[in-house]
């Protein structure tokens, strides 16, 4: 998809938010989906314009997301505020005594916000896939539901 088309799509996406700043994470997710997981450096100024944010703020958020994406050596549970409130901390505690998901036989590590607050709580599995964690009784028997980015 060409840059001009991406900018038009971003403008339409941002228009759906009451405050353009609130659209930043959704904009970044869309760009990563269109660009093989990357946020092109050439688009940062366009993102800042669309979301009415300083360029430096956009670069900071992109950098934090990039660092979080590099943490794929073991399963990571998001403990950003929304995921924390929806059970992220409970998942970490449950995983310290037994596997939360049968395939993930190691303790989970905390992760900064993964940026998918709408699906809280979320986790990044060791293979890099993002999943929504669904409680089955207590968190010791959770299931993972893949979701579209």
Automatic annotation (TrEMBL):
InterPro entries: NuoE_N (IPR041921), Thioredoxin-like_sf (IPR036249)
Protein name as annotated: NAD(P)H-dependent oxidoreductase subunit E
Keyword Transit peptide: no
Entry's Gene Ontology molecular function annotations: iron-sulfur cluster binding; metal ion binding
Keyword annotations: Iron, Iron-sulfur, Metal-binding
Keyword Plastid: no
